[in-house]
Every structure is written in C-alpha cells, then in structure tokens.
Amino acid sequence: MAIISISPFSAFILILTVIPFSEAGLSPHYYHQTCPQAEDIIFQTVRNASIYDPKVPARLLRMFFHDCFIRGCDASLLLDSTPANKAEKDGPPNISVRSFYVIEEAKAKIEKACPHTVSCADVLAIAARDVVAMSKGPWWPVLKGRKDGRVSKANETINLPSPFSNATTLIQSFAKRGLDVKDLVTLSGGHTLGFSHCSSFSARIHNSIDPTINSEFAMSLKKKCPLKNKDRNAGEFLDSTSSRFDNDYYKRITMGKGVFGSDQALYGDSRTKGIVDSYAKDEKLFFKEFAASMVKLGNVGVIEDGEIRVKCNVVN
C-alpha cells in the first residue's frame, strides 16, 4: 500500500490497492483497446463543468450513490420518465439530484469518439471518482465493463437511505447491498462535499431539540432554517470545508455537529463510533478505505444482460 502524487493530476492522491476483477467481468483496463480516450473525455467534461458550477462535484458523487443503491450501478437513475412509467429520477428522494447534463455531455462526446462502446453506468462511475480526486480526495482505478439497465421505477427509491435513519436501519440497508459496517461509515464520508436543505434536518432543531446535536450548532441551524422558513434554498453544508474532500465531516460528528440525524447516529452506536473516531484522527486512512469502498460499491448489482445506451436518458 502506498500513497503518492501523480501527474497530470499533481494535487490528487493515488490509492494503490490490489483491485480484484469482478465476477461480472469488470476490469480497470476494459476500454484500453476499444476506447482508450474515454477517461480523458470524462475528466475534461467533469472538470469544465465543475469550474462553471462548483456544486457539480457533490451532485455527481450523490448521483452515483443514488444510482447504485436501487438496482445496482446500472445508470437506471439517468433514465427519463415516460407516460407509461415514472422513473427513479422523479422519485421523492431524487427530486433534488442535479447535473445530469454533465453525464449526458460526456456520453455524447464519447459516442462521437467510440460509438456504442462505453456504458452510461461506466461514465457515471468514472465521473464519481474524478470529482473526488478533483476535490483533493483519493484517486483509484475504476473497474469498468458495466452494462446499462432498461428498468427504472420511482417507487423503488423508497429504499434509499434516509437522513432520518438510525444506525441499525443504515447497517441493514447497506448489508442488503453487500456492504458492511465499515463501508457504511466510510461511504458516509462522501457527505464531506454535501449540502442539505432545511427540510432534511429541521425536525432535529425545532420543538424538541435532538439531544445528540451540539447546542450551539443547533442554534446556528435555527437561524439559517427558522420554523416558518420561506427560503427554499436555505440549508447547511455537511462539513466546514464543503469544496474539499477531507475528513472534516468525521471531526464534526465527534463534536455533535453532524447535520443529518443519520450522520450523528454513526457516533452514537458502538458498532460505528470507533470507525468515525479513526477517520477523524487519520485522513490518510479514510482516503484509503474510501477508495476501497467505492470500488466495492461500484460492483453492486452489476448486470451482464443490459445494453450500451446511445443516450443516457433513454433506452435504445
């Protein structure tokens, strides 16, 4: 195991791990012969979009999580609803998912370079890695070769983890996807780039204040999110360095400053508390484990009988 800087992404941290090939035939070298420029196209597209809109990194990372947690990493979240079917992107938890245009733009450029070769699922997986790396987080070799799914149902989004969940519910949700307790705590660290609207945490700070929240922090949240809040854009960043991928998220949880009840719950349960402490103390450890858990998440529900969509928002 080594951590080094690499070029051309000199600020990125490369996590060198032994990446086993997936049972579904995934490989870090999947497109080396058929579309060697794919990752460069995705990186350039994501970087340009992030320069134009600093919210893009957090949005694309969240998009990847929300896609993988429903039918596996099959890009079903990217499909548009039709008159006959309400798709995942229109399910209640996904209404706030944004920046689909970035994936669509990257895919369109790849189609010109390598028609009918690279799946939308792989584009999203690579983009999620790139936004972490561009935000000063770890870099890892993305396993590729996913196929795109043809089914997307809004009613299945009820299975996404909730910001109101307790530790037991979260552990059970992750376990159903083959992810363990460490993966839960590690992947929750993706919230280091996140922002939440008031509706996702207001119940913790009004009426009966959640006893697990730092009292001064609760007061600051109340000022931003009053009981009769009329500002739909009001909310709070999930850590104090919202544009940088780091371990500040865990440090804040140890101080009772987790924004979501589900975040703070990780510090109130003996099964997860020790992992939170270890990441709050050791950022390099967090980076190493995050890279490994992202590879593991990327293997969830990989399908072999899907398709390579020409456009990510519609089936072929």
TrEMBL record:
Q: Which domain of life is it from?
A: Eukaryota
Q: How is the cofactor bound?
A: Binds 2 calcium ions per subunit. Binds 1 heme b (iron(II)-protoporphyrin IX) group per subunit.
EC number(s) reported in the record: 1.11.1.7
Q: Where is substrate annotated to bind?
A: 161
Q: Which GO terms describe its molecular function?
A: heme binding; lactoperoxidase activity; metal ion binding
Q: Give the intrachain disulfide bonds.
A: 35-114, 68-73, 120-312, 198-225
Positions that bind Ca(2+) 1: 67, 72, 74, 76, 88
List the catalysed reactions.
2 a phenolic donor + H2O2 = 2 a phenolic radical donor + 2 H2O
> Which Gene3D superfamilies does the entry link to?
1.10.520.10, Peroxidase, domain 2
- PROSITE patterns in UniProt: PEROXIDASE_1, PEROXIDASE_4
Q: Binding positions for heme b? A: 191
What keywords does the record list, in alphabetical order?
Answer: Calcium, Disulfide bond, Glycoprotein, Heme, Hydrogen peroxide, Iron, Metal-binding, Oxidoreductase, Peroxidase, Secreted, Signal
Name the GO terms of the biological process aspect: hydrogen peroxide catabolic process; response to oxidative stress
Keyword Transmembrane among record annotations: no
Catalytic residues identified in the record: 66 (proton acceptor)
Query: Where does the UniProt annotation locate this protein?
Result: Secreted
Q: What is the required cofactor set for this protein? A: Ca(2+); heme b
List the residues marked with site Transition state stabilizer: 62
- Pinpoint the Plant heme peroxidase family profile domain residues: 25-316
Position of the signal peptide: 1-24
Keyword Iron among record annotations? yes
Q: What does this protein do?
A: Removal of H(2)O(2), oxidation of toxic reductants, biosynthesis and degradation of lignin, suberization, auxin catabolism, response to environmental stresses such as wounding, pathogen attack and oxidative stress. These functions might be dependent on each isozyme/isoform in each plant tissue.
Q: Which PANTHER family match?
A: PEROXIDASE 25-RELATED
Write the protein's name. Answer: Peroxidase
Question: Which species is listed as the source?
Answer: Zinnia elegans (Garden zinnia)
